[in-house]
Fold this sequence. Notes:
Blueprint: E1 11-16, H1 20-34, E2 38-43, H2 45-53, E3 60-64, H3 65-73, E4 83-95, H4 106-115, E5 119-121, H5 125-137, H6 140-143, H7 156-161, E6 167-171, H8 172-175, E7 181-186, E8 194-201, H9 208-218, H10 224-229, E9 232-234
Parallel strand pairs: 1-2, 1-3, 5-6
Antiparallel strand pairs: 3-8, 4-6, 4-7, 4-8, 4-9
Amino acid sequence: MQVTHTxxxxxxxxxxxxxxxxxxxxxxxxxxxxxxxxxxxxxxxVDAAKRVQAGEVFDLVVLASDAMAKLIAAGYxxxxxxxxxxxxxxxxxxxxxxxxxxxxxxxxVREAVLAAPTLAYSTGPSGVALAQLFEHWGITEHIKHxxxxxxxxxxxxxxxxxxxxxLGFQQLSELIHVPGIMVLGPLxxxxxxxxxxxxxxxxxxxxxxxxxxxxxxxxxxxxxxxxQRQGMTPA
Length: 235
């Protein structure tokens, strides 16, 4: 892919934590290719959306598709520039040294949840879907006093690593780099929760050509290996 460097000023963006490490790699690769520096701040997804809605100026936004749809509907993000980047699935983790658990089936996961003294899941879209799954299983009341809520921007994996949580659910991309935990694997296919993360330029962006070149690069097949290395699949 031909990339042309057009400005020395950094392009700026904001994203949720789920894509933080991936975006570090993608923007570094883009800078090496084009000379264009890109600075993307990664925070809790809810906080990222609020900051965009509050009028904070960025060139691009990278968030889960449902959050992006709301920003587009409200006029904060350009619909025509929306670029799906990755699909990200949920995995299960326990502290290092814990006994391995069977999570090979829906029933096995349900039993693991019921047996866990403490558990936690993301405050993002995957966490909402998990809460709905627990409700569907009819176990919400049974486990609600054992749920540990991770503050926005705080990885569930860090709570697992500290021993504050015995069973953690979060996107694989956010678990694979956390020391002190054992990733048991992804949720089984029958109950897997997949989040699509997309990028788009903001409606206040004054450098659309440069941002579009960045978005095209981040969606290109040549960076697929970077996405797979972060536990995601190209969108």
